[in-house]
Structures are given as C-alpha cells and as structure tokens.
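Hypothesis: this fold can be encoded by more than one sequence.
Test: take the structure tokens below, design a sequence, compare later.
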C-alpha cells in the first residue's frame, strides 16, 4: 500500500508539472509580436510651430503734431507712392504759431540793427577818447545779446514751419495701405507718443512669418534652413520659405520660454491655384516697391476716403498680412541611412512578459562609442538610459543596444555594431489584452508597475 501510494503521488506531481509547463507555453504562445525590419532610407527632421504672416517691410505712419484730422486721401488697400499726400491735420493753430514766429524774427532783426547802430556810434566816441572802456563794453554786450536773440527767432521760425509741414501727412514709402486708424474729424494728440494714422506695407510680394519656437527645439534652428507652411485659406497649398533670422530675445509666457524665428517667403498670385484658376487673370500693375497690384476705381471699392480713380490693391496675391501659418522648418536631412520605426525604440517587452522570459544580451554586444543612450559611469555623472532594439532569439526577446540619431517621428536613425539592414525588430504586440496580464505594463515599454 505504501509503494502504491508513493507511485500515485509521483504521478500526480508529474501531471501537475506537465500542466504548468503547458500553461506557461500557452501563455507565451498567446503573445503575437509585431515586427518591422531595419531598412535604408531618408529621414527629414523638422521643427513645427505656429506663426503669423506680415509684410516684409511694414511702416506705421504717424503724425508729430496734435490736431483735428481734416481730410484723408487714402484708405484700406490704397496703393500709394512715396511723398504722396494721404492725410491732413487742421493747420490753424500752427499757422498762428508761424505768424508769431515771423513777428518775433522781425522784432529780433530790428533790435539787432539798432544795437549795431548804437555800438558803432559809441565806438567812434571811444576812439576819440570821449567814452570810457566799460561803457563801450556794455554796448558791445548789448549787440551780442541782440545777435543771439535774432538766431533764436530764426530757429523758432524754422520750428514753426516744420510743425506746419507735419500737418500734411505723406507716404514715407511706396506700398499698400493695410490699416487706417483714424477718421476725418478725429482729434489726435501727439503730446507723449506719436499717434499712428496709417500702416503701409511696402511690398506685399515679399512676406515674412513670425513663429514662436519652443526652447527645446530652438537649438536645431539655423539661418538659411528651408521652411514650409500652410494657411487655412489654402489648406492644400504648401508655401516655401527660408529662415532669415533667429532672435535671441526670449519670450516668457506662463513660464514657457519661446524664441521668435523669422522666415521669408515669396508671395504668389492666388489665381494660379484658387477656385476658378485657369481664367484670364485681371490686369496688374507693377511698380518699384509695389509688387503685384491691381488697379481699381472708387466705383468698385468700399473705400470712403479715396478720390475717384485712385489705384487700389484688390488682393490678387495669396498671402495676406495677419494670416496664421502652420510652419515646418527642416532642421536635418539624411539619406541612405539605417532606420527603424520609432515605435521600435520606444517598445519594451518587459511590460508584457516576466523578466525571466527575456533573453540576456549577447556577450559581444557593446554600446556604440559615443552613443546618446550609452551609460556613463563617472564621478558626478548619473548613468543615462540606453537606447535599445529588441529582437527574437529562440522565441525570446533579446535587447540590442544602439545609437539613435535623427528622427521625423515615424522613423529613427539607428547605428551600432549589432544593427544591420534587414534585421527584424519588435515594435509591439498584436493582442495587448491577453498578454498584458503577464507584465501589467504599458505597450510603449517600461517596467511593470506594482502597487
């Protein structure tokens, strides 16, 4: 009986052990790995941001004198020439100041002439020994004071003339009026600051994009890099530009640091791809600093302050000042390099299976020299995370340490002794619900979390 009992127990243990093996094997068989191959190709690394379009040169036009706006001869979309009169401030008080300055000048001129006569008469008396030296010096000083007063009066007259000329507002450059900030009858005060009356874009055929780049990405941006952007008006059209300026002044908003980057772009006629393209284009006017413009008349515009027949920009260029641009700056481009889907870099099978199921790295596998993810063990330095790819060896995942390079989000450059073209690497699993119970982690990798 004892021998039969021991045999029965042995058989029961064997059955249980075999069942456990089958269960473990079944759990492994439930995991269906997603894989990808290391291939060769190109990667374009980009920095994205949102920016605002403006004219390349945009000039605010103000007035240096205070007064009531009596007339305007330009309005929104007016095409103006340098020196053209576009507004008028009431000159009445400044005409009064001019007359007062002219009267002061006449008085100072007469005073100097009288002082000269007196001085010359007394000089003759002094030569005849009939006048004391001190008395002559007094007449000489009076002449000098009269001369200085005359120069002051001349300067006052010039100031009055200048202020009167400021009442006439002229266009400082050739361009298109993009903003009118006052109306006829409005009073402008130039006591503490110059009030703006118009804003003129010198050349709408050249535009620039102001974009705020995050501090994490600004180190990759350089002058001369290619840039692409789209605007909501033409979502299927990609405009090309170039980075022309990287400003060093930080902009801090809610503890977020950004830097302004300026990209220049050539504006394009929207008739080339707007709805209805292919029809005969409207006549255009080309002029120095004007770029492309279309002549209109007052009958075809809504402008209130333009004389009939004034040239009007009718918006035949695609890009308008103030448009929002979704920008993409090309910071790096590599061709014919080893690359893997970026998911392979982020994946960690330890999230799905116990660590004892993971194959140990090959003894010959070493981190690439200078790898960004290589561990650094030195005084004062903390060991850094290693970038790894995972391959299957005898059905078990095995890590391969690599150096990660440029990335466009979809693909990442990889290099290292253990990486070769065509290598099959793990990128994920097919059925997370079944296999996640083994490790309890995230499909993107990382160790299992235990509570």
């Amino acid at each position: 009986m004892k021998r039969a009992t021991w045999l029965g127990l042995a058989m029961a243990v064997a059955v249980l052990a075999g069942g456990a093996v089958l269960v473990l094997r079944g759990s492994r068989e439930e995991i269906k790995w997603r894989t990808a191959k290391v291939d060769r190709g190109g990667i374009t690394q980009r920095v994205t941001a949102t920016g605002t379009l403006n004219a390349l040169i945009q000039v605010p036009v103000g007035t240096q004198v205070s007064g009531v706006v009596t007339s305007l001869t330009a309005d929104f979309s007016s095409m103006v020439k340098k020196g053209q009169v576009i507004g008028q401030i009431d000159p009445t008080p400044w005409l009064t100041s001019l007359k007062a300055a002219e009267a002061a000048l006449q008085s100072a001129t007469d005073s100097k002439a009288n002082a000269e006569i007196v001085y010359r008469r007394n000089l003759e008396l002094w030569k005849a020994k009939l006048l004391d030296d001190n008395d002559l010096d007094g007449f000489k000083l009076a002449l000098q004071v009269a001369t200085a007063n005359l120069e002051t009066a001349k300067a006052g007259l010039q100031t009055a003339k200048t202020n009167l000329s400021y009442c006439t507002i002229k266009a400082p450059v050739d361009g298109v009026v993009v903003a009118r900030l006052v109306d006829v009858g409005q009073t402008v005060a130039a006591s503490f600051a110059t009030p703006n009356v118009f804003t003129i874009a010198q050349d709408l055929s050249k535009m620039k994009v102001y974009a705020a780049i995050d501090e994490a990405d600004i180190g990759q941006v350089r002058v001369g890099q290619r840039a692409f952007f789209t605007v909501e008006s033409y979502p299927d059209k990609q405009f090309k530009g170039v980075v022309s300026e990287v400003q060093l002044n930080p902009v801090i908003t809610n503890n977020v640091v950004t830097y302004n980057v300026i990209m220049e772009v050539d504006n394009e006629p929207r008739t080339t791809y707007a709805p209805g393209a292919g029809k005969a284009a409207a006549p255009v006017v080309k002029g120095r600093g004007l770029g492309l413009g279309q002549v209109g008349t007052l009958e075809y515009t809504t402008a209130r302050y333009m004389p009939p027949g004034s040239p009007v920009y009718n918006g035949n260029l695609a890009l308008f000042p103030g448009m929002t641009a979704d920008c993409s700056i090309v910071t790096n481009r590599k061709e014919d390099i080893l690359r893997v889907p970026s998911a392979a870099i982020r994946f960690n099978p330890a999230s799905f299976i116990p660590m004892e199921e993971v194959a140990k790295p090959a003894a010959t596998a070493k981190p690439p020299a200078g790898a960004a993810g290589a561990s650094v063990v030195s005084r004062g330095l903390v060991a850094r995370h290693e970038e790894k790819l995972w391959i299957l060896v005898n059905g078990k995942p095995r890590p391969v340490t690599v150096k990660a390079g440029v990335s466009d989000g979809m693909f990442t450059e990889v290099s290292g002794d253990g990486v070769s073209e065509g290598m099959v690497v793990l990128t994920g699993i097919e059925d997370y619900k079944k296999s996640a119970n083994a490790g309890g982690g995230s499909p993107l990798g990382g160790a299992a979390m235990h509570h």
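The chain has five helices and 22 strands. Residues 92-127 form the longest helix (36 residues).
Hypothesis status: open.
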